[in-house]
């Protein structure tokens, strides 16, 4: 008999030979215990599903709660899963990362696969440098999903094909609170992109990847004049990027972040994500009135931490 210890509860996993016996606990309580065990320690899922058939039914959807389908053949597998086992995607998937390629039927991916993930709250859409498929059907699907965190190219979303009016696009995302924008220099020069972000009714957090050698100077004006409801704006760059942080950042809500490899600093041990780290910096600035910091070589990062391109 194997014991799995959790805070204030110990779950005993019965041998397979005993799994057909009447449970010692009410089924509702037993389900809650096993589900809690799987959520607190996801690596246990593959063990827990072997306990009994009823436990397999409870735990299997949790195996698909967070899916990264950015590999070459993964998108086709995801489409097939949506056609063959849509109930599994509906019950399990909460976070999904996909990569668009010219060889993938993006319309099918959006209208079949995403629509099957009815409880999806986090979505990352990436694409490479190949000729890109359009985003046809994406907004119609998103407006039927409870999306709260989204990462994608706004240019593709608004200008397609098909082109979409900013207010119409924003209306399709009423629950969106966190937005990560790839190729974000477009954001600074496009009135359509700024109108879209401004119109998002629930948006509080914005992360942008400025492209090119420098960030357009309008970042301050954009944040101060048009994005008044935002609590945090992250400017993201990789250590090898040729993008230099702007030298005139003055809004305390703007945090400059350099993405790097994993280490074990205090924030990582506290399991804080990039949004939470940024919030801490902004709160400290507002509470202490701390000025933005500069190095002798120019503006420096306010934050350095691991962040993959698929995180939302």
What's the layout of helices and strands?
Blueprint: E1 2-6, E2 9-13, H1 27-40, H2 45-48, H3 53-63, E3 66-69, H4 74-84, H5 86-92, E4 95-100, H6 106-116, E5 122-127, H7 138-142, E6 149-152, H8 154-159, H9 166-171, E7 178-181, H10 185-189, H11 191-199, E8 205-208, H12 219-226, E9 232-237, E10 254-260, H13 266-269, H14 274-288, E11 294-295, E12 298-299, E13 303-306
Helix pairs in contact: 1-3, 3-5, 4-5, 4-6
Written description of the protein model:
With about 300 residues, the protein is α/β, with parallel strands linked by helices. The protein has three domains: about 25-65; about 65-145, no CATH class; about 170-290. Helix content is about 35%, strand content about 20%. It is built from 14 helices and 13 strands. It has helices spanning about 25-40, 45-50, 55-65, 75-85, 85-90, 105-115, 140, 155-160, 165-170, 185-190, 190-200, 220-225, 265-270, 275-290, and strands spanning about 1-5, 10-15, 65-70, 95-100, 120-125, 150, 180, 205-210, 230-235, 255-260, 295, 300, 305. The protein has a nine-stranded parallel β-sheet with strand order 3-4-5-6-7-8-9-10-13. Strands 1-2 form a two-stranded antiparallel ribbon. Helix 6 (about 105-115) links the parallel strand 4 and strand 5 (about 120-125). Helix 3 (about 55-65) crosses helix 5 and helix 4 packs across helix 5 (about 85-90). Mean pLDDT is about 75; it is low at about 295-300.
């Amino acid at each position: 008999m194997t014991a799995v210890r959790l805070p204030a509860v110990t779950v005993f996993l019965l041998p397979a030979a005993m799994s057909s016996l009447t449970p010692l606990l009410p089924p509702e309580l037993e389900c809650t215990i096993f589900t809690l065990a799987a959520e607190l320690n996801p690596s246990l899922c593959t063990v827990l599903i072997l306990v009994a058939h009823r436990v397999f039914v409870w735990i299997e959807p949790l195996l698909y709660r967070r899916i990264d389908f950015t590999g070459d053949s993964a998108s086709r597998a995801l489409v097939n899963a949506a056609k063959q086992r849509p109930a599994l995607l509906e019950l399990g998937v909460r976070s999904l990362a996909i990569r668009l390629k010219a060889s993938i039927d993006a319309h099918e991916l959006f209208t079949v696969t995403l629509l099957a993930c009815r409880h999806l709250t986090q979505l990352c859409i990436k694409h490479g440098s190949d000729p890109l498929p359009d985003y046809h059907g994406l907004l119609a699907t998103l407006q039927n999903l409870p999306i709260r965190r989204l990462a994608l190219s706004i240019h593709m979303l608004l200008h397609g094909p098909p082109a979409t009016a900013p207010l119409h696009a924003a209306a399709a995302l009423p629950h969106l609170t966190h937005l990560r924008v790839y190729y974000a220099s477009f954001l600074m020069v496009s009135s359509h992109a700024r109108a879209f972000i401004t119109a998002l009714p629930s948006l509080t957090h914005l992360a942008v990847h400025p492209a090119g050698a420098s960030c357009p100077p309008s970042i301050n004006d954009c944040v101060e004049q048009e994005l008044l409801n935002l609590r945090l704006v992250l400017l993201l760059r990789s250590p090898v990027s040729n993008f230099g942080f702007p030298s005139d950042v003055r809004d305390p809500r703007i945090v400059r972040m350099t993405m790097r490899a994993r280490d074990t600093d205090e924030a990582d041990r506290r399991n804080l994500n990039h949004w939470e780290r940024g919030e801490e910096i902004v709160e400290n600035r507002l509470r202490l009135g701390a000025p933005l910091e500069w190095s002798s070589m120019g503006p420096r990062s306010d934050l350095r931490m691991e962040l993959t391109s698929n995180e939302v």
